[in-house]
Write a structure and sequence with these properties.
By secondary structure, this protein is mostly beta strands. It is 7% helix and 46% strand.
């Protein structure tokens, strides 16, 4: 009886938006980011622009709006990458954060023609998280700092997120690419109030610090260890957690880590997978009915948005159940995929 009751509560928590014909199962979403905007009681779901659904061919970020996380308006383009900046493609892992009374967009872009020095056979090029700002959550967003990222220009980085520490100081936490280092890292960069760099980055942990991570053999002959999608959150007991993703035995994995000091400095303890079977790059938010929710994408290719109800356990977060009333899908969170279970994995 719990699932129908939960669905009813969620439907009552926010008004249904007019003209919301799209179901969650319709949304092709990679690296989803949800903001529960309290003033309008609207959920905003951000992703890379898809010209097939927005009708706009520009590289940028689109946003869907919903009153119940199950029915969505057709998306609108909220940010278009200007033609006169160094970046030319991308739009990965968009995040939207409230800071100093305005909305800030973090999204990863790149330029394959802007080569970086490479110590090996792999060709490297500029990739970084750019920042943009708007007065409204649905934009339009404009680049800040003339389109230059906060991270060092020689570093190949992605998936930047905003973290505000206990003293109110902003940081950008991001993944430093395995493409450049072999073993990817999660790093933190102190920022000024205008979100420009305030110092040098520091390494929080390496991908191979987690025993569940499996390296990916590369055409160049080496093995890459991936770090993706960091997001920071505080538990009810004050623990500082990080969601992040990499590759495990059976595909992409959503995992968590915990800082033993309660600060970015760590040390960071790897707590293992939350959701497996080709699922990851998730983030957490509080629904209007008070429930803690996780959204991620699955599968890695041609990904769909997938929601879970979560529990704050004080020193970690735990999956309660799949929110099947939102996407209609029932899928196990751990263990072997059905198609390989008989192989003894």
């Amino acid at each position: 009886m719990r699932w129908p009751i939960a669905a009813l509560l969620l439907s009552l928590a926010a008004p249904a938006l007019a003209d919301a014909p799209l179901l969650t199962s319709h949304l092709r979403i990679h690296d989803p980011w949800v903001v529960a905007e309290a003033q309008s009681r609207t959920y905003w779901l951000f992703s890379r622009n898809d010209p097939a659904v927005t009708g706009d061919r520009r590289t940028g970020i689109m946003a869907y709006a919903s009153g119940d996380l199950a029915h969505w308006q057709r998306p609108k383009l909220v940010f278009a990458l200007p033609e006169d900046v160094w970046a030319k493609d991308g739009g990965w892992a968009p995040e939207v954060h409230r800071w100093k009374g305005r909305w800030y967009l973090f999204a990863t872009f790149h330029n394959e023609a802007a080569a970086l020095p490479s110590p090996g056979k792999r060709r490297l090029y500029r990739r970084a998280t750019l920042l943009a700002v708007a007065d409204r959550i649905d934009g339009p967003y404009s680049l800040i700092h003339e389109g230059e990222p906060p991270t060092p220009p020689g570093d190949m980085t992605l998936d930047g997120t905003l973290h505000v520490d206990a003293a109110g100081k902003p940081w950008m936490v991001y993944a430093h690419e395995w493409l450049q280092q072999g073993v990817g890292t999660i790093e933190a960069l102190p920022l000024k109030d205008d979100l420009s760099p305030a110092g040098k980055p520091s390494i929080l942990f390496r991908a191979d610090a987690a025993d569940w991570v499996v390296g990916q053999r590369q055409p160049e002959g080496d093995t890459g260890y991936v770090t993706d999608g960091p997001e920071l959150l505080r538990t009810k007991d004050g623990a500082l957690l990080m969601l992040w993703s990499s590759w495990g035995r059976h595909g992409y994995v959503q995992a968590q880590a915990r800082s033993e000091s309660g600060t970015l400095a760590g040390p960071w303890t790897q707590l293992g997978p939350l959701v497996e079977q080709d699922s990851g790059h998730g983030m957490m938010f509080r629904a209007f009915d008070g429930r803690l929710m996780l959204v991620l994408h699955r599968p890695f290719k041609r990904a769909l948005a997938k929601f879970y109800e979560m529990r704050d356990a004080g020193d970690r977060v735990e999956v309660v159940r799949e929110a099947v009333e939102l996407d209609g899908e029932a899928y196990p969170t751990h263990g072997c995929p059905m198609e390989v279970r008989d192989a003894g994995c």
